Automatic annotation (TrEMBL):
Protein name: Asparaginase
Entry GO terms, CC: cytoplasm
Superkingdom, natural source: Bacteria
Keyword Cytoplasm: no
Species annotation: Herpetosiphon geysericola
UniProt-listed GO biological process terms: proteolysis
Residues binding substrate, per UniProt: 196-199, 219-222
The keyword Protease is annotated on this UniProt entry: yes
Length: 300
């Protein structure tokens, strides 16, 4: 049976100064997920392991290193899907949680799919998820970004500069039993209004998995990604029989064609273990591996 893992660290015009950190981080995340799969772990475990690595690194807009909202503090979103059971767990606008993807996992274990703010935090706390001082998630770079004036987000502005949309993280995995899982985690958009929730915790928008077809995690301008349900669109392309790379490219093409300023990208794994990736931004940090070719590919 094929094994496969793909990870991304965000789409956008990623500054040259951040590329080495992005490359190193994305490789570490890939290897964390790969190790889980090679040890016989599940796709869900592998996707979570990969995302945790990225949430813990300051280079990425998730967990530690999340961007700040208009008020100057962190609020995070995350989503997770098991492609075999079709169970979903997602959280929106949470604070003080070290690894938001673990909060999403806590929700996945309930009969529900999405909780926000204090209610999401309560579910996570009951599950034993680690909490930290919310201020400890702010890095000097993110604070300087906010203090320099990046606090006036307008959803209709069409602005897609690197420091605003880049760095959302995600992972998709396929295990030896044919299970597929997808996970996405983000700090959202810099300067966003209090309580704003983007595409990352929305099934079909920021992530989607169906073990009969494939799994997808997206990144980019959340308001546009959610409107075209980018992740679900990519999976539907696989269901129609498209090659995995063609399916990825066709989904991203719709994002740019249907919505002015629609910018982003995705990673996609098909049920046969083949991997695709596409983006219409200048760059998308991503990496992938399967045991078919047995070669790690790092694109930063």
């Amino acid at each position: 049976m094929p094994l496969a893992i793909a990870v991304h660290g965000g789409a956008g015009d990623i500054p040259e100064s951040l590329r080495p950190d992005h490359a190193a981080g994305i490789q570490a995340a890939l290897r964390a997920g790969k190790a889980v799969l090679q040890a016989g772990g599940t796709a869900l475990e592998a996707a979570i392991a990969a995302v945790i690595v990225l949430e813990d690194l300051p280079a990425f807009n998730a967990g530690y290193g999340s961007v700040l909202n208009r008020e100057g503090f962190v609020q995070m979103d995350a989503g997770l899907m098991d492609g075999t059971s079709l169970d979903v767990g997602a959280v929106g606008a949470i604070e003080g949680i070290k690894n938001p993807i673990l909060a999403a996992q806590a929700v996945l274990k309930t009969p529900h799919i999405l909780f926000a703010k204090a209610d999401a935090e309560a579910v996570a706390r009951a599950a034993g998820v680690e909490f930290v001082d919310n201020a400890s998630l702010i890095t000097p770079r993110r604070h300087a970004q906010w203090a320099s004036g990046d606090r006036d987000f307008k959803v209709d502005s069409g602005s897609t500069d690197a420091e605003t949309i880049a760095d959302t993280v995600g992972a998709v995995a396929l295990d030896g039993l044919g299970n597929i899982a997808a996970a996405t985690s983000t700090g959202g958009m810099s300067g966003k209004p209090l309580g704003r929730i983007g595409d990352s915790p929305i099934p079909g928008g920021g992530f989607y998995a169906d073990s009969h077809a494939g799994g997808c995690s997206t990144t980019g301008w959340g308001e546009t990604i959610a409107r075209v349900l980018l992740a679900r669109r990519a999976i539907e392309n696989l269901e129609r029989g498209m090659d995995v790379q063609a399916a990825a490219e066709a989904a991203v093409a719709v994002l740019g064609q249907r919505i002015e300023g629609g910018e982003g990208g995705l990673i996609l794994i098909a049920s046969n273990g083949q991997i695709g990736a596409a983006f219409n931004s200048q760059r998308m940090t991503h990496a992938y591996w399967n045991n078919i070719d047995d070669q790690e590919q790092i694109i930063a």
